[in-house]
Amino acid sequence: MVTGAGGMLGTELVGRLRARGADVVALDRAELDLLDPGAVREALARHRPEVIVNCAAWTAVDDAEADEDAALAVNGTAVAALADCDARLVQISTDYVFDGTATEPYAEDAPVAPVNAYGRTKLAGELAAKDGYIVRTAWLYGAHGPNFVRTMMRLAAERDTVEVVDDQLGQPTWTGDLAEQVIALGLSGAPPGVYHGTNGGRTSWYGLAREVFALLGLDPERVRPTSSEKFPRPAPRPAFSVLGHDRWAAAGLAPMRDWREALHAAWPGLSL
């Protein structure tokens, strides 16, 4: 069972599972209201899934600052209802559970300290799913839905230059790679716990934008670096979101490949 099946990751995951011949129940918000515990119980009883991958989330980071209770209902409370069954739960979480003050990659067991409402609500979801698999990801892009990479593709066609922040470091992560990693984890029989589902390496949003321009055959110098202070937003963002990947060894799985290699692999399927 995949919840949030209409989203960027959910769509990718469902497509890849079905391509493998898996029996998948794909549920989007219209088909399952995760805020209705009775509806969740009924869906679980009817479908009896062996594995649940919860891709459903309140992802509007800035809006969560204004309505944390609503975000918590989706990102935290609803997860508890999914966890209350015999299926293996894979809960998709976020780098935003960390405060971003580190200088080396965050280990899976590093202390959490979210700096915004979105991070706090996703941490609540982790606590609800503590007996299952928690896969933290970050800087997602893919073919399904809006994301930074596709925004840069659009701006490249509209503007002579673009300004992009250079003071936030992280790991751009392709939904295709993450979907494959989640599938492998679900089939692995690995011990439950926290796993970091991001592509390897590190860069800034500025560095990612330059790579996008290069792949478009455009001059990367059209991308100009700037600071986060120039683009104030309601929710503070962690300045350092690089995650470590040591836990995959416990699952007998290799970590995900470098972000540049993944972006090049994803490129033929990305479009506006």
UniProtKB/TrEMBL annotation:
> RmlD-like substrate binding domain: which residues?
1-265
As for family, the record states: Belongs to the dTDP-4-dehydrorhamnose reductase family.
GO CC, sorted alphabetically, is:
cytosol
Can you supply a Gene Ontology BP term from the record?
dTDP-rhamnose biosynthetic process
Could you tell me the EC number(s) of this protein? 1.1.1.133
How far does the signal peptide extend, from start to end residue? none
The record ties this protein, via NCBIfam families, to: rmlD (TIGR01214)
Provide the species name. Actinomadura macrotermitis
Q: What is the lineage of its organism?
A: Bacteria, Bacillati, Actinomycetota, Actinomycetes, Streptosporangiales
| Coiled coil (UniProt feature) | none
Question: Which InterPro entries does the record match to this protein?
Answer: dTDP_dehydrorham_reduct, NAD(P)-bd_dom_sf, RmlD-like-bd
Q: What is this protein called?
A: dTDP-4-dehydrorhamnose reductase
Supply the SUPFAM superfamilies for this chain: NAD(P)-binding Rossmann-fold domains
Q: Does the keyword NADP apply?
A: yes
Keywords attached to this entry: NADP, Oxidoreductase
Q: In which pathway does it act?
A: Carbohydrate biosynthesis; dTDP-L-rhamnose biosynthesis
Keyword NADP tagged: yes
GO function term, MF aspect, one: dTDP-4-dehydrorhamnose reductase activity
Q: What does this protein do?
A: Catalyzes the reduction of dTDP-6-deoxy-L-lyxo-4-hexulose to yield dTDP-L-rhamnose.
